[in-house]
TrEMBL record:
Chief place of localization: membrane
Locations listed in the record: Cell membrane
Topology term for the membrane: Multi-pass membrane protein
Name listed for the protein in its UniProt record: Cobalt ECF transporter T component CbiQ
Length: 253
């Protein structure tokens, strides 16, 4: 995990949030999501306060609203599922705009939308202020099983290699006048997928042999040792602690 690896979700910056050690941000995000999920769905005002807290983090991290909203589109399938819940759930019915909807389904849809959106927004803020390499170092610092960290590292690194191989194969097909326009071209695409699998497998074997020849014995060397001061932990945990206060009020009020 020595070389840097940028990803599309990451937004380069020099904000206080960017400067926090990765394991503190991972712990804070996880704790925030746990608190949000633990909040009763009836405390609708609490979710509004959670959104305000996340907006404050986005402001401190200098992440534009448009950047954040665009990446929230990843939850569209969950939104579609939530929209269907009032129509398919059983129980007491209520009329809304001339439609007979399930009360429990409406509460379930609200629960999924509110908690899912806040969770995705927190994850997007984490990804936009932390590079992938730093996330892996943070997971390692939090004592995640080393094998899982290695698998994630290899997946991230060679995902781009495979994507680049796909791009070269597409350019080669197009340079020969190929253009997929119907079912009759599926055979060519299937052969391309097979060739891609073989090339990826062969490249993986070459990489593994190269690692063994350089002394790899089942564990990756730690080049950068990330640490966090008490002040940095306090700053990072401000978000989940504030959310915890809101959650407790949601249960008591």
């Amino acid at each position: 995990m020595g070389a840097g690896h940028a990803h599309r979700l990451y937004r380069h910056g020099h904000s206080p949030v960017h400067g926090l050690p990765p394991h503190t941000k991972l712990a804070a995000t996880f704790a925030f999501v746990v608190v949000v999920v633990s909040t009763p769905r009836e405390a609708m005002w609490a979710f509004g306060l959670y959104a305000v807290l996340l907006a404050g983090v986005a402001y401190a991290a200098r992440v534009p609203a448009g950047f954040l909203l665009k990446r929230l589109l990843i939850e569209v399938p969950f939104v579609a599922f939530a929209v269907l819940m009032p129509f398919v759930a059983e129980g007491e019915r209520v009329e809304v705009l001339g439609l007979q909807l399930s009360v429990s389904g409406l509460w379930g849809a609200w629960n999924v939308l509110a908690k899912g959106t806040l969770g995705v927004a927190a994850s997007v803020l984490l990804a936009s202020t932390t590079e992938l390499r730093e996330l892996l170092l943070g997971l390692q610092r939090l004592r995640l099983p080393p094998l899982l960290v290695q698998i994630a590292s290899f997946m991230i690194r060679y995902g781009d290699v495979i994507a680049d191989e796909m791009r070269r194969m597409r350019i080669a097909r197009e340079s020969r006048g190929f253009e997929a326009s119907g079912v009759k071209h599926w055979g060519v695409l299937a052969k391309s997928a097979g060739a891609l699998f073989i090339r990826s497998y062969e490249r993986g074997e070459r990489v593994h042999l190269a690692m063994i020849s350089r002394g790899y014995a089942g564990s990756m060397p730690v080049i950068d040792e990330v640490t966090a001061s008490r002040a940095q932990w306090s700053y990072a945990l401000t978000l989940p602690f504030a959310a915890l206060v809101v959650c407790l009020l949601g249960w008591t009020l």
